[in-house]
Amino acid sequence: xxxxxxxxxxxxxxxxxxxxxxxxxxxxxxxxxxxxxxxxxxxxxxxxxxxxxxxxxxxxxxxxxxxxxxxxxxxxxxxxxxxxxxxxxxxxxxxxxxxxxxxxxxxxxxxxxxxxxxxxxxxxxxxxxxxxxxxxxxxxxxxxxxxxxxxxxxxxxxxxxxxxxxxxxxxxxxxxxxxxxxxxxxxxxxxxxxxxxxxxxxxxxxxxxxxxxxxxxxxxxxxxxxxxxxxxxxxxxxxxxxxxxxxxxxxxxxxxxxxxxxxxxxxxxxxxxxxxxxxxxxxxxxxxxxxxxxxxxxxxxxxxxxxxxxxxxxxxxxxxxxxxxxxxxxxxxxxxxxxxxxxxxxxxxxxxxxxxxxxxxxxxxxxxxxxxxxxxxxxxxxxxxxxxxxxxxxxxxxxxxxxxxxxxxxxxxxxxxxxxxxxxxxxxxxxxxxxxxxxxxxxxxxxxxxxxxxxxxxxxxxxxxxxxxxxxxxxxxxxxxxxxxxxxxxxxxxxxxxxxxxxxxxxxxxxxxxxxxxxxxxxxxxxxxxxxxxxxxxxxxxxxxxxxxxxxx
Length: 553
Prior knowledge:
The protein is an alpha/beta fold.
């Protein structure tokens, strides 16, 4: 990598432009770039080839007030219950320190434990629900009840049939049990068995892995790829191999925990930029170039930007064209996590790189998982052959983790060939297009009903804002009564005032299924008073009043 400090000696030409609330072109909600960049000697006119529309509407002030009030009341009653438990007036169910260790530093964090036992426990029945079928567009659910306010559960033996699945990441519908579709997977299971019992560097590399890696590289349009048996570990175990002490990581504030863990394990310096905020990122890049490392002021060994394609809690899509422009300007590296975007966006399902009409060469490290669009398990790292060869010998996953099992590899091959049309059909392309249609239809209807939903219009991850803690449990329970399975999320997984339900749209959802869900949401939105939308603009603040971005290669 070229010395990043060399950039500060050049002439930095900034194109200043006052912010608009929304550009007429529809490209941005606030921070806009109207100048174009030149690529291969041709001016593109703008950084975006089509409208880029995202929604982060602000709720009325009273919603925030009642949300904080709800948490406040819950906290007061929590302390009251703790007092009653301490005096033996209420049974203590939570784990506590042994009497012999009363003078030790507590093993359990007090406030985290307080939140779990007094707030989370009241609505715990809405998570970890056991299903007993394939997680397709519908699934079967094992009914369970509690006799002690969610401290323990017991199964009734009843199976709730045909629950509409709005929570699984089955974007292209490849989580299926069709015998004909899984015929090749069955053959590989009989040939190789279920496990390998070795790492990739020992006896764990099979011809199936080689075949899959060649197919992934071809699918993405890059030189080489390497696959791993676990999606989470693809990030957490490979980032430490790429950066270390003396390196700088610039990470989006809403990056997935696997990226956060990988960054922390690397030993590199980590700095956070505001979510999808180009001004915030550029400020960090400029400061890194100008000031270098703390105390020594030496240039950073590497600067790497960590972003996701689709953010799984916000439903937003990374502003890839602008970030690539910054990457080139400041000579940084770019690590792109396409866990939720590969297969889900782009004309042929090749992720956000294709979605923005860009070249895979613009991204230094392409990462993705097979756990979502491909109905399997594991992940990949792809890019230049030199990068992949380096990871084959230095990746902790390659050295220590057990290889991907052959039937899973075959499932990925089957699904990817279908998407690429190598199976001799257009079924894969039809799935990608159907996912896009379902996503836009579902989002448009929710907007029309008056719900506040976050994210990009083309993102199949659809967060619907609930806000108040008391409505989290009520929403999920009422939806299940209508035979609809949903995922609800609250603090600390989200900001304290932004509890939400997160829907994941699938190509396997029929229009009838979506209409059933929408009808239930319309009714429940009136009952729980969830229709807060006033069609206002984004509530996500921008860091600066002006846009500053170098627009030349």
